[in-house]
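re: ur question from yesterday

yeah so i grabbed the chain u mentioned. its 309 aa long if i counted rite. heres the sequnce exactly as i have it in my notes:
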Amino acid sequence: MVTFQCNLCGSQQSAEETQLLDPARPATCTRCRSTTLTRAIIRLLALEMFGQELALPDWPPVKTVRGLGLSDSGAYAERLEYLFDYRNTFYDREPRFDIAARHPERDESLDFLICSEVLEHVAPPVDRAFEETFRILKPGGVLLLSVPYIEEGVAAEHFPTLGEHGLAEVGGRTVLVNRLPNGSYEVLPNIQFHSGVDTEDRALEMRLFSKPALERALAAAGFDEVEFRGEGCMENGIVHSAWSHPIVARKAPCRKPDSVTKELALSLTELREQARAANQSRWIRLGRTLNAGPRFVLDSRLPEKDREE
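ran it thru and got these structure tokens back, copy pasting raw so excuse formatting
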């Protein structure tokens, strides 16, 4: 049994290591329903934004930082909306965003983009999606990416000739019906779906990546630094299997803009000052004595009358 602190909600949790390693990625935090993968994504975003491992409840708000999520988990999306100029989007419902389409109005507009378990579902050619992730990031921006992939071998594109298509039920079985360029139709019975992290919605698997194919696609799109981050963090219940590690890809120049760096430093200073002020509250001290006190969070504002001079 592994005991850990969830870095999304701050609660103490425990789970079997086999659960943490489960490729189906079940929720292993009973409070916020986070998974090994969602905790890993937030850990990496903290390192990119603040240079240190901060639990999400302790992040300072920096509204000059702009981010975008592609079907992000509800376990962290609402908090990111409070902290940053961030919006979570979806392919099939509002607010809609198709990463494989061109969005010239968003060119070089984002400090970070989270694309977790999405690109395996994008219709071919997937290169368009990699190119768009690069275009909409600012210089110095970062892509946090996760997709299922194999360590070696050739990537498998399941439907290379995919055109106008749809799903049909035949004999109690779901099949893919695809219209070919010559106008004829083909029926593809061997298809696979993935379920969403927060919903029971099913998404059709279009491909299985390989690590070499991902490296080539990211380099071709223009990313200068690509890291496959397989290190775990047992303290936060992050234990990766031997494959399908989260990926950090950076757009040159691989540094944060000076204005953002300065504001982050100011916000962290403010965070420390707030923590010191809260720790002087008679209510916080009483709670600690009773071992049931409220947890100080960033957006708390204690009235002056509740602080000791």
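noticed a couple things. Residues 2-150+207-256 form a domain with the Rossmann fold fold (CATH 3.40.50.150). also Helices lie at 17-20, 36-50, 74-83, 127-136, 211-221, 258-279, 282-290.
anyway ttyl
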